[in-house]
Amino acid sequence: MSEEKHLKSDQDVFMKNLYWWGVPTLFGCPHNPDVNACDIALVGVPHSTGNGTTERDQHLAPRAVRNVSGSYRRAHNKFNIVPWDECKIHDLGDVLMPRAMVNDATVIDIENYYKELDNAGVRPVSIGGDHSITGPILKALGGPDAKLSGGQKIAMVHFDAHTDTMDHLPHWLGAERSAAHWGSYVAKEGHVDPEKSIQIGIRGHTRTLTWKRTSDRLGYRMVDMDDFRELGVQGTVDLLRERVGDMPVYITFDLDCLDPAVAPAVSNLEPGCSGFTMDEAVGILQGMQGLNVIGADVVCMIPSKDSPNQITAFASTAIMFEQISLIADSVRREREAGQD
User: Residue 262's closest CA among 278, 240, 280?
Assistant: First the structure.
């Protein structure tokens, strides 16, 4: 290659890593809505009618993360990979939601969209949206008819300050498939195996003294912040890995598990006790290297509450990067195993 072409190539790479240049996409990836053209699909789910008790600007998060994620670093030093070089990663755009103002109709549209990804064997990493988006995604990716999970139930790794398993309530201000219920119905309907799943980071006072018991009855293993302080990052990783085993894994990350100083722009702040630092959350995620991660999401960011430096949007970007890297590393390992 001539010196002139080398220079142009270097300039192209540099310009593509500027968040203020070009058309914003998630991590500056190519925008291609064709589900059959990639290995990892980055998807926006701008939905915010599943959580009626807090601010509802979660639907603005995909746009905010597209705005900042293009400037994020490209290589994962811990895993020694460049995810974008290991597999095809595209920004598919946003889930079409023509009934966005009606939660229980919209979750059906979300589920149908992710069934297309599952049929194509494409692993999604999504930015929500409130936490009601995770239920329909799990229904599409796990269970007897699912391709990515091999027809198995999914082992869920759930980062959150709240359990989201309110199976004793018939609805949440009218929403039956709400941000408060999804953790229950995906277990009861056979898409997630709660006996292989873990909820990490639960903290704060509850509405009643029985509020957390719904997760226990369903069979989830809960590691609340008091437990985490005793176990530490490595102890939590050891417990997580023992719990999920070789099951197909889905990671859902509610930003309110992070400390409010780290992620202030979330829909359910828990300021009464400290949440995860970024190092702690990232340490747990990186400890999952080698697991069969088939999908992931980040939820509950409210850009209209963010600080001027958009720190919560950047925190969302950092968590998504770890999730993307875990999946890219899995794809690499599968490819190398197939070559042996």
Answer: 278
Tell me if 176 is assigned to some domain.
Answer: yes
**CATH assignment of the domain containing 250:** 3.40.800.10
What is the model's pTM?
A: 0.94
Domain count, the chain: 1
Helix (H, G, I), strand (E, B) or coil at 111: helix
Contact 104, 47 (CB under 8 A): no
Structural domain boundaries enclosing 250: 25-339
- The pLDDT tens digits of the residues spanning 1-24 come to 566 655 556 666 667 667 677 889
> 3 in a domain, yes or no?
no
Contact between residue 45 and residue 93 where contact means Cβ atoms under 8 Å apart: no
Q: For the chain, what's the residue count?
A: 340
Query: Per the domain annotation, does 247 fall within a domain?
Result: yes
54 pLDDT higher than 80: no
Which are the contacts of 122, defined by CB distance < 8 A and separation ≥ 6?
35, 36, 38, 39, 40, 41
